[in-house]
């Protein structure tokens, strides 16, 4: 909402030296946030000039320019007449005009300088209204005697025009929240400024209004299908003004205020209704009375009805659209509260008008506005709540202005169809603000604040409870908490203490939250970048990943109202969406990419759907239990995907491409950070390459293990279908499994001071046997003395059979209480080899 400071001063007492910045700061104290401060964009010397000579000079391009000698007094520093080229022709010698001299700046940052044009050096510019930001008239320059009227008599050449034309006035723009619709008016802003500063407030709605009569223009409210039991229009005031001359120009003072408030002057009738709307917050509409053939009927739309609105768009109406219609011809006149129609539009030839001032239901207007994608100044106000008590006052003010400016005569008959329901009071505990806010508000202060904002208070017996009737312009005050907010706002947010709560013992982040943070830190520390992707996928993504038709990951939750019809399903794994982040980065020139994502996936158990209870009351326990049981399982997952070089190349030599070993190492580092031992076993699972995928399993103290996830290289066809680089690697882990496995106290093992004994063994196994299987067998057979095991060599060559491979392991043994004897080490080593031979068929080389 743009608030011209000069206009605001008519409704509330402003200090003489007040600035827009000071007003904005005062409004912030009562919750009206400053959006911007606007002032004149004209700077530099803008002065009165008198045209001394004017010569018309036709040009070769067919245009005729005016070469002028203009007296600007001493403003140019010499007192000599100024030579100026002008393209307008609506002035003559002797006229007073607005001249901006070299060094001045016009709106838009257009700097004026002396320059040669059309064979002359033009030292300045004779300005039009549009060039100065005063209006849209660009057909001719400003002739001050016409523009200022009697005020121009006292002007002298060289006199500064900035203040005379009102270009020094400030405008404060504030952000109006949806619950403060009354602030979409100068009346509302002035009242809030009064609350903030204590300045005297003069209500512009405090006008005498004639009572309703029976002979006014007929109006019938026939809302046959009210939305949710609320009547679409509960008050309609109609006034008639006859004998108008609407060809008259809108007064300059009114045009200026409209422009400052951000509205373009259009015509007298429209400008008057807009002016009243800005002043009081009540939207109005003017109909050409000659185009009406019967009573005004407010009703809902009928099937197949259309309306050509004032923006030249023919709209097909919905059954819930509230309309203003002509009861005689059944013609649709307007979308109630949103926009009028062309059929009854007021024109310059209109002499008699019907002024409509109505109160329309906020939800009805809001839904119509959104349905037709038509947001107007009227709909913005109605959907936030308009004061129903100001309806007749707004109509009267509009009638008075039309009579004063347009020369018409007001019909003494007044139509006021009033179906309003009495507002319900709120029973309010005077102790509630102190309990909610934490400030010791006295009962007297609470009463004072509520009375100040316009509430009527009635005591209830001898208790501390009062009956509060909110003012008509505050439909948002509906219960105790909203009244508490008003007490805190008006008394001052700065009085509310800032107290940091002290958490009780045992509170804070859960174990799962801490672990997820640790996982993200570990991966970020290894150079991976965290990303977030949208959790929506289409059915074709499962085919691109090569998932079998019976794969449980194809069982995805479908959204009833998806953002995109191409992605109506919730992902069941992060690798269904994360590769898109990699593809996008690679397509934009980033060759070496490693990203990870930590988020939930959705795994529906069955096809049950949650019921949708009403909003009038809390659902019962059985309904809540049904809703909770229908919520699908949403475990936390971690996914990683990488392409390009893992070790960068440079002057030091060639790099190394990321491979399956890297992504397995990243997954292992996550488990190690959680204190969870894991082992990798060969696996086949889409979308990974069958021979380059491992399953990561958790090793628990009792020897049992659970599946943590999979890691490896993506299948070449999957990478191709997803548009990823060749040899892209990826992993996906179930973090809930990791949380469960790590949710125990980790006991540090004591460091032994006794020496370690190492023994290397080389085992020959079939090439189909994975090294992890051999490693597990050695671990199982070596017993408690084995401290660590390391695979340090893999050999395939002519010294063994073609179908075999040799795996060399280094076994490290240590006891915590003694130095091991050679016999003990050899026995443990032999037991490990024997167990590997029994489980995998391994044969010790050189034995």
Give a quick rundown of the structure.
With 847 residues, the protein is an alpha+beta fold. The longest helix has 19 residues, at 822-840.
Structure description:
This protein is α+β, with helices and mostly antiparallel strands and 847 residues long. It has 6 domains: 2-39 and 169-197, Phenylalanyl-tRNA Synthetase, Chain B, domain 1; 46-154, OB fold (Dihydrolipoamide Acetyltransferase, E2P), CATH 2.40.50; 219-418, Phenylalanyl-tRNA Synthetase, Chain B, domain 3; 426-492, Phenylalanyl-tRNA Synthetase, Chain B, domain 1 (2-Layer Sandwich), CATH 3.30.56.10; 511-613 and 620-742, Bira Bifunctional Protein, Domain 2 (BirA Bifunctional Protein, domain 2, 2-Layer Sandwich); 757-844, Alpha-Beta Plaits (2-Layer Sandwich). The strands form 12 sheets. Strands 28-31-32-38-37-36-35 form a 7-stranded mixed β-sheet, with helices on both faces. It has a 5-stranded antiparallel β-sheet with strand order 5-4-3-6-11, with no helix packed on it. Strands 13-16-19-20-21 form a 5-stranded mixed β-sheet. The longest helix has 19 residues, at 822-840. It is elongated. The termini are far apart. The model has no long low-confidence stretch (mean pLDDT 91).
Question: Tell me about the biggest sheet?
Answer: 7 strands, mixed
What percent strand?
25-35%
- Which regions are unreliable across 5 or more consecutive residues at pLDDT < 50? none
Rg: 41 Å
Cα-to-Cα separation, first versus last residue: 92 Å
Biggest sheet strand order reads 28-31-32-38-37-36-35
């Amino acid at each position: 909402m743009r608030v011209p400071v000069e206009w605001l001063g008519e409704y509330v007492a402003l200090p003489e030296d007040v600035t827009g910045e000071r007003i904005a700061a005062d409004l912030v104290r009562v919750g009206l946030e400053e959006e911007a401060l606007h002032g004149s964009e004209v700077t530099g010397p803008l002065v009165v000039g008198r045209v001394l000579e004017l010569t018309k000079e036709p040009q070769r391009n067919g245009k005729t320019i005016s070469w002028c000698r203009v007296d600007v007094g001493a403003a140019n520093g010499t007192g000599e007449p100024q030579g100026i080229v002008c393209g307008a022709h609506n002035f003559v010698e002797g006229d007073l005009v607005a001249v901006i001299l070299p060094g001045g700046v016009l709106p838009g940052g257009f700097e004026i300088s002396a320059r040669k044009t059309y064979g002359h050096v033009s030292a300045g510019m004779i300005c039009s209204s549009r060039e100065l930001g005063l209006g849209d008239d660009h057909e001719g320059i400003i002739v001050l005697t016409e523009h200022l009227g009697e005020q121009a008599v006292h002007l002298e050449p060289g006199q500064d025009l900035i203040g005379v034309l009102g270009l020094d006035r400030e405008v404060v723009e504030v952000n109006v929240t949806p619950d403060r619709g009354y602030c979409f008016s100068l009346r509302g802003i002035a009242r809030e400024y009064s609350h903030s500063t204590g300045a005297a407030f003069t209500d512009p709605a405090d006008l005498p209004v004639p009572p309703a009569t029976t002979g006014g223009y007929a109006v019938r409210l026939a809302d046959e299908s009210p939305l949710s039991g609320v009547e679409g229009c509960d008050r309609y005031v109609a006034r008639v003004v006859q004998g108008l001359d609407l060809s008259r120009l809108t007064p300059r003072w009114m045009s200026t205020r409209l422009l400052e408030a951000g509205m373009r002057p259009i015509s007298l009738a429209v400008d008057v209704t807009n002016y009243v709307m800005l002043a009081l917050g009540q939207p109005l509409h003017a109909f050409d009375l000659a185009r009406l053939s019967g009573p005004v009927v407010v009703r809902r739309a009928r099937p197949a009805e259309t309306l050509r609105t004032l923006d030249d768009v023919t709209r097909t109406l919905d059954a819930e659209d509230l309309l203003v219609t002509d009861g005689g011809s059944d013609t649709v006149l307007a979308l109630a509260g949103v926009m009028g129609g062309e059929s009854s539009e007021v024109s310059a030839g209109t002499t008699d008008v019907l002024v409509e001032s109505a109160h329309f239901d906020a939800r009805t207007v809001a839904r119509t506005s959104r349905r037709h994608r038509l947001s107007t100044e009227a709909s913005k106000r109605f959907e936030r709540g308009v004061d129903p008590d100001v309806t007749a006052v707004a109509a009267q003010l509009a009638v008075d202005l039309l009579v004063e400016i347009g020369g018409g005569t007001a019909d003494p008959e007044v139509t006021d169809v009033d179906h309003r329901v009495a507002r319900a009071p709120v029973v309010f505990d005077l102790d509630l603000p102190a309990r909610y806010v934490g400030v010791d508000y006295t009962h007297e202060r609470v009463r004072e604040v509520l009375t100040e904002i316009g509430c009527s208070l009635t005591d209830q017996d001898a208790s501390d409870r009062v009956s509060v009737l909110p003012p008509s312009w505050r439909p948002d005050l509906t219960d105790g908490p909203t009244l508490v907010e008003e007490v805190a706002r008006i008394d001052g947010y700065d009085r509310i203490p800032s107290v940091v709560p002290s958490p009780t013992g045992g509170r804070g982040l859960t174990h799962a939250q801490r672990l997820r943070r640790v996982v993200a830190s570990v991966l970020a520390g290894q150079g991976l970048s965290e990303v977030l992707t949208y959790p929506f996928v289409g059915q074709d993504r499962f085919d691109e990943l090569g998932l079998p038709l019976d794969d449980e990951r194809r069982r995805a939750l479908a959204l009833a109202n998806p953002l995109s019809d191409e992605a109506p399903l919730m992902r069941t794994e992060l690798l269904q969406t994360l590769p898109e982040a990699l593809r996008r980065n690679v397509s934009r020139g980033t060759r070496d990419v490693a990203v990870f994502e930590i988020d939930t996936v959705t795994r529906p158990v069955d096809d049950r759907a949650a019921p949708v209870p009403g909003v009038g009351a809390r659902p019962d326990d059985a309904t809540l239990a049904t809703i909770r049981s229908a919520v699908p399982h949403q475990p936390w997952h971690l996914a990683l995907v990488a392409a390009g070089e893992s070790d960068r190349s440079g002057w030091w030599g060639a790099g190394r491409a990321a491979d399956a070993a890297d992504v397995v190492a990243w997954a292992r580092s996550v488990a190690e950070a959680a204190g969870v031992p894991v082992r990798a076993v060969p696996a086949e699972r889409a979308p990974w390459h069958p021979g380059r995928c491992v399953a990561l399993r958790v090793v628990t103290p009792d020897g049992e293990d659970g599946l943590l996830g999979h890691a490896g290289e993506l299948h070449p066809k999957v990478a191709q279908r997803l548009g990823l680089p060749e040899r892209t690697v990826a992993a996906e882990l179930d973090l809930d499994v990791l949380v469960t496995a790590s949710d125990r106290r980790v006991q540090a093992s004591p460091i032994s001071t006794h020496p370690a004994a190492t023994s290397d063994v080389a085992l020959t196994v079939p090439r189909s046997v994975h090294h992890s299987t051999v490693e597990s067998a050695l671990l199982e057979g070596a017993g408690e003395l084995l401290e660590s095991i390391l695979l340090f060599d893999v050999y395939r060559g002519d010294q063994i059979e073609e179908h075999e491979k040799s795996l060399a392991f280094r076994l490290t043994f240590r006891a915590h209480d003694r130095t091991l004897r050679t016999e003990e080490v050899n026995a443990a080593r032999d037991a490990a080899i024997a167990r590997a031979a029994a489980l995998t068929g391994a044969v010790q080389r050189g034995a």
